[in-house]
Write a structure and sequence with these properties.
Elements: E1 2-8, E2 15-21, E3 31-34, E4 38-44, H1 48-59, H2 64-73, E5 81-87, E6 92-96, E7 105-109, E8 112-117, H3 123-134, H4 140-153, E9 163-169, E10 175-181, H5 187-200, H6 202-206, H7 221-238
Antiparallel strand pairs: 1-2, 1-8, 2-9, 3-4, 4-5, 5-6, 7-8, 9-10
Helix pairs in contact: 1-2, 3-4, 4-5
């Protein structure tokens, strides 16, 4: 009932998952992630343990193929489940159970995988992966969203639309960006809107948050305010609704 993309940005090492479904609050069930460790998407007849235990195993240094074998090997319901994952080094793997509802399958490529079930057909994953690979110069978040948009254009979930989510982790134990549309007529477009709103203030504040290497973060609010004010002035001068509207790969 879902399709998703799991990726590692090769330039930064950042990890991301984007997911969409004709199912309520898919973002609460599918993505699991830890900065500097890896990312797991568990879907179809979801097992949250695939996400929780998969991350623990990634943290222990186990390879993605090894993790899939361990998780599915202990699970009598594995043939109704689907998962794909990537580690901090970019190693990845995927599994689609034989009893997942058609169309179901996955594609694994260099530092990215796409997987889905109950889809309009294999073209959904083909389009998702092709779009992602074609946008190597785009910001990571926009690349993930544009890929999902392409999959939606190819048919997406054959039952329709309801929810979507985008989660990105950098090298910390907390998300850099986590946005969801839990029940929406056009959830991917809602994610684009939320992403644009996040660019106004939220993501600039996120850059100042404490890290393990710098537990203080940036504590002088004047620097944050100056950055936001400068960007707002540029936006007004250019007549744009938001900074991201100037980026050619964002759909309108």
């Amino acid at each position: 009932m879902t399709w998703s993309i799991v990726a590692r940005d090769p330039d930064t090492g950042h990890l991301g998952i984007a997911v969409a479904s004709r199912f309520f609050a898919v973002g609460s069930a599918v993505p699991y992630m830890r900065g500097g460790i890896g990312a797991v998407a568990t879907q179809a007849f979801v097992s949250p343990l695939y996400g929780v235990d998969g991350l623990s195993m990634l943290g222990e240094g186990k390879a993605p193929d090894e993790i899939i074998a361990a998780l599915t090997g202990r699970d009598d319901g594995a043939e109704q489940r689907q998962m794909h994952l990537i580690d901090a080094k970019g190693r990845n793997a995927a599994f689609t159970g034989a009893k997942c509802i058609d169309w179901a399958g996955h594609l694994v490529d260099d530092q990215v995988s796409v997987a889905g079930n109950m889809l309009a057909g294999p073209q959904v994953l083909d389009a998702t992966l092709a779009a992602y690979k074609s946008l190597s110069q785009a910001p990571f978040a926009e690349r993930l969203l544009a890929a999902m948009e392409a999959g939606e254009g190819a048919g997406g979930d054959k039952r329709g639309k309801q929810s979507a989510a985008l989660v990105i982790y950098r090298d910390q134990d907390y998300a850099w960006l986590s946005i969801r549309a839990d029940d929406h007529a056009d959830p991917l477009q809602e994610l684009w809107r939320l992403y644009r709103v996040a660019q106004e203030r939220y993501l600039h504040v996120a850059e100042t948050m404490p890290t393990r290497a710098n537990p203080h973060g940036l504590i002088d609010r004047r620097e944050i305010d100056q950055t936001i004010a400068s960007l707002e002035a540029d936006r007004i001068a250019s007549g744009r609704k938001s900074a991201s509207f100037a980026t050619p790969w964002i759909p309108t």
